[in-house]
Write a structure and sequence with these properties.
Layout: H1 2-28, E1 35-40, H2 50-57, H3 60-63, E2 66-71, H4 79-84, E3 90-93, H5 96-102, E4 107-112, E5 119-124, E6 139-141, H6 147-155, E7 164-166, H7 173-176, E8 182-186, H8 190-196, E9 201-204, E10 217-221, H9 222-227, H10 229-248, H11 250-260, H12 267-281, H13 293-305, H14 315-318, H15 328-349, H16 353-386, E11 391-394, E12 401-404, H17 406-412, H18 434-447, E13 449-458, E14 464-476, E15 479-488, H19 490-539, H20 545-571, E16 584-587, H21 588-605, E17 609-614, E18 621-624, H22 626-643, E19 648-656, E20 663-672, H23 679-682, H24 703-714, E21 718-723, E22 729-739
Parallel strand pairs: 1-2, 1-3, 6-7, 6-8, 17-19
Antiparallel strand pairs: 3-10, 4-10, 5-8, 5-9, 11-12, 11-15, 13-14, 14-15, 16-18, 18-22, 19-20, 20-22, 21-22
Helix pairs in contact: 1-15, 2-10, 11-12, 19-20, 21-22, 22-24
Length: 750
């Protein structure tokens, strides 16, 4: 029986093989002529269309029975209209295809080439533009197909209708000359043009604002798909073959473009474009041509939120799904073969079914895990790449660069990979000193992280810059690595160095000044001490009362002058901000009376009246530093007498308002009938050190006023001036004092 079944299955297989051979021979006799089709590109020939050139050059289109014409575009070309109107059968579009579909255009997306949109806003580095909000109101060159840029503005809270947009000239010189503040551009192209002209640019990418649209996509029409489904399938397959070849052999395709597709592109420019194109496609992570319906759904939601689209788009009709393309005869043939093979295989496959099911479950689980890992890795790579600050990933021992995002390339002026430098950034050591490298490595090794370490970096152009570096240990491509973020502080470091040098110079000058002032102080105090001693000797003898009173005034004045000189010396020391005050009880009525007695002889000598009053509401006794208060008021009274030629000088004490319990706000008025202070001198009246008084009718000034205000402010108060030229001056001293309830007052000049 088994022998019979085996013989029967062999006869069935032989018949199937004969049918298959006959079908193949019949098909070989048919050699249809190649279909002529036209592909409308988005722009002039460049690496952006490398996959199409590769498919043409390597014969992928020819093998698919296609004669393909690649048509360049101009700024005025409407790619979608060219395809919909039938002048081209296929075209290269962007996410704007969804907007066209919503408006009724029968377009169908066949494959996504760029997984991320290359559209960015370019602006020059400068002080006027720091973020996208600074562009509001400024002229912006913007292309018609800029939906993701407009959505970016909307997400940032900026009404796109308020933007000052101007027609795009596709000339970066308009940005350089300042004719526009920013321009829409491809990150794969215009950024290189600016750099080649010596200008550093700022890129505002929609991804940083949460708008992640697809870039270049291959599309056709519903009519082409309906009338020529096999041609659509063959053209798509050949094109994706071309793109895979272009990504694996970029140098070869660059040479091909320069040779067969002449334009203004240089080899360096094409190399730059190839590197940036690979970053946008991620062929190592995502299959070229992959279409994610969920991603298109998110794009549709962005369009609807920003008001760019109202109608819903049927994704089943909008996105291409590849079908088997088999005719009924082929289906029957396959079913016959499958049935025969299945019957034969059942004789020995059944024992393996259970094992096969188990393996399938494990494979499915592993596949899902790998997909999740790929999605996670893509998200993290996109996050690092779009970060608005420089990020490096380096080897944990040598800190050799394994990865650098765009900001790191700009900050460190890293070289891009090219035939002369295949290593790219990996060949550059970003640290300037080996000890900085060792410090980072040791910190990450011992603590797993490092925060805000100041290190010197050497750029790819040999410039020395200073940065704050934070680092931590991570795993990158399955091996240990170090993640570093950098913040440039070159200007701050230079300012700190200049401040340190200035501080050292000031300390040296201050030491010399203190030595000089101490010598001068000693020379001044010696004769004053002698005068005081002689006066005290004379006072021991019998003297007339008026002579004794005058000698006592001389003793007090000389004593005050000694205190003043001593205080001036103390103020010149390095610790002058630590000077202490010695509050003591003061009877303000006795204080002002003694002050009047001290200066009355000088007033009478000039024929002036010297008056002093204390308001009734002023407390009998307050706590203030009597020596400092005497210095302040003596300077003000002396200044008033010095510049008043007729009339009088009045010293009065009033009480102001304060909410502090146990304290009183005192207002000391020193008013004269002198010439007043000229407006040109009022701003310099309290300057320290003193200025030389000019020879003018306007009131001059000396060091006394500056010393008085300085003391008042150190005591928590201030001195204000009210004056009008020719009408006298009023100096107002405000001081906050404790009310003395119990302690007896002491003499003001003791």
């Amino acid at each position: 029986m088994r022998l019979h079944l085996h013989s029967l299955s062999m006869r069935v297989l032989g018949g199937v093989a004969a049918i298959l051979l006959a079908s193949g021979v019949a098909r070989a006799d048919v050699a249809p002529a190649p279909d002529a089709i036209r592909v409308q590109l988005k722009w002039t020939h460049q690496f952006q269309f490398a996959g199409y050139y590769a498919a043409q050059e390597k014969g992928y289109y020819k093998d698919a029975g296609l004669n393909v014409d690649l048509q360049e575009a101009t700024p005025a070309t409407d790619v979608i209209k060219e395809v919909v109107d039938g002048r081209s059968q296929y075209g290269v579009g962007t996410s704007d295809l969804m907007l066209a579909r919503a408006k009724g255009a029968p377009v169908v997306v066949l494959a996504v080439i760029y997984q991320h949109s290359p559209f960015v806003l370019l602006a020059l580095h400068g002080d006027t533009i720091r973020d996208i909000h600074d562009l509001v109101g400024k002229p912006i060159m913007m292309e018609k197909q800029s939906a993701d840029i407009l959505a970016y503005f909307h997400n940032e809270g900026i009404d796109p209708s308020k933007l000052n947009t101007v027609p795009h000239t596709f000339n970066v010189d308009d940005l350089i000359s300042g004719k526009v503040a920013a321009m829409t551009a491809y990150s794969t192209d215009e950024a290189y043009l600016l750099r080649s002209k010596g200008y550093e640019s700022m890129e505002f990418t929609p991804r940083s604002g949460g708008v992640d649209f697809y870039g270049d996509s291959l599309f056709t029409t519903e009519k082409e798909l309906h009338d020529h489904p096999d041609r659509v399938r063959a053209f798509r397959k050949a094109t994706l073959q071309g793109w895979n070849y272009a990504m694996e052999h970029p140098d070869e395709i660059i040479d091909l473009i320069l040779k067969k597709y002449p334009s203004q592109n240089t080899q360096d420019r094409l190399v730059f474009e190839a590197i940036e194109t690979r970053r946008l496609m991620h062929p190592e992570l995502i299959e070229i041509g992959y279409i994610n319906p969920g991603r298109w759904k998110e794009i549709e939601e962005v369009y609807r939120e920003t008001g760019m689209m109202d109608n819903h788009v049927d994704l089943d009709a909008f996105l291409y799904k590849e079908k088997s393309g088999l005719d009924l005869h082929e289906i029957y043939w396959i079913l016959a073969v499958f049935g025969a093979v299945t019957m034969a295989a059942l004789l020995w496959l059944f024992p393996l079914l259970r094992l096969n099911q188990k393996l399938r479950r494990e494979i499915l689980l592993r596949s899902r895990t790998e997909q999740q890992l790929r999605r996670s890795e893509k998200q993290y790579r996109d996050l690092v790449e779009a970060a608005p600050f420089p990020i490096l990933i380096a080897e944990p021992k040598s800190l050799q660069i394994l990865f650098a995002n765009r900001r790191a390339f700009e900050l460190l002026e890293l070289p891009t990979p090219n035939p002369a430098n295949p290593g790219g950034p990996a060949a550059h050591h970003f640290y300037a000193y080996a000890e900085d490298r060792d410090r980072i490595v040791a910190g990450v090794s011992s603590h797993r992280s490092l925060c805000d370490e100041e290190i010197a970096c050497l750029t790819g152009k040999g410039r020395l810059i200073w940065t704050l570096v934070s680092a931590g240990g991570i795993e990158f491509d399955g091996r240990p690595a170090v993640l570093l973020s950098l913040t440039e502080i070159t200007h701050r470091h230079q300012r700190e160095l200049e401040l340190l040098q200035a501080k050292q110079a000031a300390e040296s000058a201050n030491a010399a000044k203190n030595s000089y002032v101490e010598d001068v102080s000693q020379e001044v105090r010696k004769p004053l001490t002698g005068i005081i001693g002689l006066v005290r000797l004379v006072l021991q003898s019998t003297l007339p009362q008026d002579v004794r009173e005058n000698l006592l005034l001389v003793e007090k004045a000389a004593g005050s002058l000694v205190h003043l000189v001593t205080d001036l010396f103390d103020r010149t020391k390095d610790q002058e901000d630590k000077s202490e005050f010695s509050p003591a009880p003061i009877d303000l009525r006795t204080f002002t009376s003694e002050l009047g007695d001290l200066f009355r002889p000088a007033a009478e000598a000039k024929g002036l009246m010297l008056e002093h009053t204390v308001d009734e509401g002023v407390p009998v006794s307050v706590r203030l530093d009597p020596l400092r208060l005497h210095q302040i008021l003596s300077n003000l009274v002396n200044n008033a007498l010095k510049f008043t030629e007729k009339g009088k000088v009045t010293v009065s004490v009033q009480m102001g308002q304060t909410d502090e319990v146990g304290k009183v706000l005192l207002r000391f008025h020193v008013k004269d009938t002198g010439p007043g202070v000229a407006a040109s001198l009022q701003g310099k009246l309290f300057d320290l050190p003193p200025a030389t008084a000019p020879d003018t009718d306007a009131r001059p000034h000396g060091s006394g006023l500056g010393i008085a205000r300085d003391l008042a402010r150190r005591m928590g108060g201030d001195i204000l001036l009210q004056t009008r030229e020719g009408e006298g001056s009023l100096f107002l001293v405000t001081l906050l004092a404790d009310i003395n309830q119990a302690a007896a007052p002491v003499p003001a000049t003791a």
